[in-house]
Write a structure and sequence with these properties.
Elements: H1 2-16, E1 19-23, H2 29-36, E2 45-51, E3 56-62, E4 65-70, E5 75-79, H3 86-102, H4 109-125, H5 136-152, H6 156-159, H7 162-171, H8 174-184
Antiparallel strand pairs: 1-2, 2-3, 3-4, 4-5
């Protein structure tokens, strides 16, 4: 978990610390041609820029999220709401759920409720302009694959680092868990991975 935070901070620093110039318009005709047919969400403010290393990008600023898209491909989406990336929380919940199910441990009902609420938020707020539309079926398949992988792994229950996460989550009081999920999902926004708690 700590390494995920360090990686997120490093990526943010790499993206924005090296920016040398930005503007509301593409820097030249080549950039304008590249971005011309790339859709922009209706609620996005668009800025074009060039990093110190010469890499050119388009920054989409939307409520609760920024997305840096690079010429030639690649992007980095960052939750700016202050409550963390919703996809990151789903990944953590899915890791805990996988561990509890695969190892036949007690799973409190509010954990399933939290997972359902986060999944509903993801399905409702995912945006086809930024990435593919995320469906409930896609999330269910991803969770099933995690469980299958866990069952195939020798000594998963004894060696999985998920035990610490699971123990902490199971011991979290129900009202605190609900409050954290309420806070996470309060602002409708595109669900992204970064920053990951």
């Amino acid at each position: 978990m700590k390494s995920a935070v360090i990686f997120s901070v490093f990526m943010l620093a790499a993206c924005f610390a090296g920016t040398v110039r930005a503007s509301q318009e593409p820097p030249d005709a080549e950039a304008a041609a590249y971005w011309r047919d790339k859709p922009v969400p209706e609620n996005a403010e668009v800025t074009y820029g060039t990093e110190a290393n010469g890499k050119r990008y388009r920054l989409l600023t939307m409520p609760g999220v920024t997305v840096t898209q690079y010429e030639g491909g690649g992007s980095l989406a960052v939750d700016t709401d202050g409550n963390g990336g919703v996809m990151c929380v789903w990944e953590i919940l899915s890791i805990v759920k996988t561990y509890l199910d695969a190892c036949k441990k007690y799973s409190p009902p509010y954990l399933d409720e939290a997972m359902k609420r986060v999944e509903d938020f993801i399905v409702e707020n995912s945006d086809t302009v930024i990435s593919e539309k995320i469906t409930k079926t896609m999330l269910e398949k991803k969770l099933l694959q995690k469980k299958m992988d866990a069952l195939e792994q020798e000594n998963f229950c004894e060696t999985s680092g998920a035990e610490v996460l699971a123990r902490g989550m199971v011991q979290t009081p129900e009202d605190k868990m609900r409050g954290e999920i309420d806070k996470l999902l309060f602002v409708p926004r595109i669900p992204v991975m970064n920053p990951c708690l």
